[in-house]
Amino acid sequence: MNTKFILNVDVPGEMGGNTIIDNRFNPNKVYHLHLVFDQYPDDIFKCSPVYIVSESLYNSVIDLGLSGLHNARLISYSLNDNHYQTIQHDGKIPTQNYFMVDINENGEEDFSLIRINDLIRLCVSDRAFRLLSSFNIDNADISELK
């Protein structure tokens, strides 16, 4: 049996004014995401209803042939001026690209969504977890799926 992990990823900001979202659907459809960071983001995070990954993580997922991150779309972002000191990470601010990605409810993929007690959770395979461990996921709560 393959080990799987549940990640409760961080929410490092909120949707900004340039976000294009269609509330007629459940879950809402996000056509463009503009994120306003309140803190320095991990390499994978969430801003409901979408998951976002750093370009470097996304490229590594593709290079390793991992599955489950679909339809990557570049997001725009800005920094919340009121939280500038919090946003800095080792004296740096975010400068890389981030992609919002679709993740399906398919337990066979390396990245998938699963339902636990009526809540949707991000589930990753052991292979994906090993990759994520080499990236910044400091703010994620991680537990082994039993």
Give an account of the 3D structure:
The chain is mainly beta. The chain has one domain. It has helices at about 55-65, 85, 125-130, and strands at about 5-10, 15, 20, 30, 35, 45, 50-55, 70-75, 75-80, 100, 110-115, 120-125, 140-145. The strands form four sheets. The protein has a four-stranded antiparallel β-sheet with strand order 11-12-1-13. The radius of gyration is 15 Å and the shape is globular. The model has no long low-confidence stretch (mean pLDDT about 90).
Write a short abstract of this structure:
The chain is 14% helix and 40% strand.
Question: Topology, pairings included?
Answer:
Blueprint: E1 4-8, E2 13-15, E3 20-22, E4 29-32, E5 34-37, E6 44-47, E7 50-54, H1 55-63, E8 70-74, E9 76-79, H2 84-87, E10 98-102, E11 111-116, E12 119-125, H3 126-132, E13 141-144
Parallel strand pairs: 5-9
Antiparallel strand pairs: 1-12, 1-13, 2-5, 3-4, 6-7, 7-10, 8-10, 11-12
Approximate strand percentage: 35-45%
**Coarse shape:** globular
- How does the major sheet shape up? 4 strands, antiparallel
* Low-pLDDT segments, ≥5 res: none
Element order: H for helix, E for strand: EEEEEEEHEEHEEEHE
Q: How many individual β-strands?
A: 13
